[in-house]
Design goal:
Length: 345
């Protein structure tokens, strides 16, 4: 399978048991080692990590124990011919993050969030990754009167600066999302994330990660969010998936809902040479009805679909497109694209 210079990643959470808010698990659990063995088989090159994907129960371990455990994971990656793309601190499940992490109204809880994030940096160092992804999952409120948004924004910036100071080689990619689990989040879009990063002590080390579903939840087009970030040289990672409208975060297989929307994501990434910048991450989940023995097809299908769309991007009749744009004949341009997606000339 031609990969056109692209590398691909997914997180171990993308091979999962199928539980949802309304029902229990429907597939057996698989160990991390078992999941790791699937990566190369499925055509992937790198692993996305939460801190506790790499080092379970890290809150109960000393710094030395955390680093030792992370080094053992690094050896497993090396043995399987894999890279660690990034490490993300999990700041939304612990009881101390109920009211947010960096923006909690409780100073002890804010201190916990920073300490946990520093541990994630330590893990990233041992895994050979210089990138941290910050999904600011609970940085928001259910009641606007419960927090001061000005102070909360300052707290987010203070946390980013603290982490940049902690490791001079660390890069941070902020992953925005407008809602869920919080009713409304403080950093809902690419623009918000970029604005925050540009105010950091070292803006050159703060970028963004675009997730398709998150953009759709915000009522935006993922390809526009990608292009906006790439215009500033700040798109350092992506989570490609798909979404049936602005409902809950579905993480459907890439292009499974809206083929043209997916095509334009592949187009803006490919035309701006994203393969030279970062790894194409997939954050896709098998639908709950999928049998256990078939519960990795969402990953292989998403990867194959991205590459197929890259083929379509590169085989577009660019001259015909330019002529139609110059003539402002957008209806015929529309027809050209639709025919191309349907495999017709």
């Amino acid at each position: 399978m031609e990969k056109y210079g692209y590398r691909f990643s997914f997180g171990p959470w993308n091979i999962h048991e199928g539980a949802d808010p309304f029902g229990p698990t429907v597939r057996p659990s698989r160990t991390f080692d078992d999941k790791l063995a699937e990566y190369k088989k499925l055509g992937f090159d790198a692993v996305q990590f939460h801190d506790d994907d790499a080092v379970p129960s890290l809150d109960d371990l000393s710094p030395a124990q955390i680093r030792k455990a992370a080094r053992a994971v690094r050896k497993k990656l090396d043995d399987n011919g894999l890279l660690a793309e990034f490490v993300a601190p999990r700041l939304w499940e612990h009881p101390k993050t109920i009211d947010g992490a960096y923006t909690s109204n409780n100073p002890q809880d804010r201190a916990y969030a920073l300490d946990r994030s520093k541990k994630a940096v330590d893990i990233a160092q041992e895994l050979g990754a210089d990138l941290m992804v910050l999904w600011l999952a609970r940085e928001g409120t259910y009641l606007r009167e419960a927090k001061d948004v000005v102070r909360a924004t300052e707290q987010l910036l203070e946390a980013i600066n603290t982490l940049l100071d902690y490791d001079p080689k660390l890069r941070i990619a902020i992953e925005p999302k407008p809602n869920e689990p919080m009713d409304l989040a403080y950093i809902p879009t690419m623009g918000h994330a970029l604005a925050l990063g540009f105010q950091a002590n070292d803006p050159s080390r703060v970028g963004v990660l675009m997730e398709s579903a998150h953009s759709i939840l915000a009522g935006l087009d993922p390809s526009d969010e990608i292009g906006f970030a790439m215009a500033f040289g700040k798109l350092w990672s992506v989570h490609l998936n798909d979404q049936n409208g602005p409902k809950f975060d579905q993480d459907r297989s890439f292009a499974s809902v809206d083929l043209r929307r997916a095509f334009n994501q592949a187009r803006v990434l490919d035309e701006n040479r994203f393969w030279e910048v970062g790894i194409v991450g997939l954050d896709v989940k098998a639908i709950r009805t999928q049998p256990a023995e078939l519960a990795t097809r969402h990953l292989s299908n998403s990867l194959r679909m991205f590459l197929r769309l890259v083929e379509l991007v590169r085989s577009l009749d660019k001259k015909a497109m330019e002529e139609l744009v110059a003539a402002r004949d957008y209806e015929e341009l529309d027809w050209l694209i639709l025919n191309h997606l349907m495999g017709r000339s």
